Amino acid sequence: MKMVKIVIFLIFFSKFTLASFAVYYGNISASSNINELSKFDLLILSPLVEEDYIKELKSKNVTVVGYLSLATIGGWEPWAEDVPDGIIIGYWETWDEKEVDFSSPQWRDIVLNEAVPYILSKGFDGVFLDNLDYVDKYPEKREAMVKLIKAIREKYPDIVIVANRGFSITKEIAPCVDYILFEDFITYYDFNDNKYKIYQDADLQWVLAQAEMLKKLNVKVLALSYVDLDNEKQVEEFSKIICKYADEYGFEVYMADITLQRIGLNPCENFTKSQVASSETKIGGENKNICGSGAILLLVLLPYSLRQLILR
């Protein structure tokens, strides 16, 4: 019977791996933008969003995940006051955030027993794990980051997990997450001259190499591209090239400005509802330790929610 289920899922795999999504850290109001936000299947929001708004979005069949940086602390997070100075190892000037020793047992405890529980207590379906690229700045802590992500999945087996980039560890964490967010897909914001740009030459080739790697892994990819939303000409120009590559690699795209305080758009096409597994379809599955070394290759390639169904 399991083999029949596997065959069925493989047949329809390419149809149901994409979902419209948005990354939005601005204010949410029942009288203004909540209806616009509810048009997306998956929302990545600030963990400070009021519970009533999360509940309303979920009632409209939207999957909602809360922001959690695994390598920095901004001071605004409810768990920030519990981060000891002894595990601060640097400073990120661009975003005015402190860099955390993510290999520290103290940080691991904060993430697993304070940050994630806080987010879930608000009603979020899961978490958005940001700043995984810090493993490239601190390569000696690479394995610690992988173990932390695996620990989140093992402790919270039924939540939705979206991981931002972390391309050098994607192969290890792919079985443990539901989506990989590809931030800065094709376009980016250059903080040196305060302009939105399209990657060129060697930089573009590097971006495409990461896209090819993700495609081969068969992970579900959500591509976040940046643009000046007030510049119609730029939106049109960027959309053409972004959608060209998104179609080639099978990525779903969301385009917004660098502040992520405004609701952006999907420049390529509109997707219907129900293409993201709701929290209800994920709850109740037994943890089969799919993050471990004994994971079956076929199950690794399937979306997490489908793996859970097959293994029941």
UniProtKB/TrEMBL annotation:
Pfam families: Glyco_hydro_114. Gene3D superfamilies: Aldolase class I. Residues 51-261 form the Glycoside-hydrolase family GH114 TIM-barrel domain. The lineage of its organism: Archaea, Methanobacteriati, Methanobacteriota, Thermococci, Thermococcales. InterPro entries: Aldolase_TIM (IPR013785), GH (IPR017853), GH114_TIM-barrel (IPR004352). This is Glycoside-hydrolase family GH114 TIM-barrel domain-containing protein. PANTHER family: PELA. It comes from Thermococcus paralvinellae.
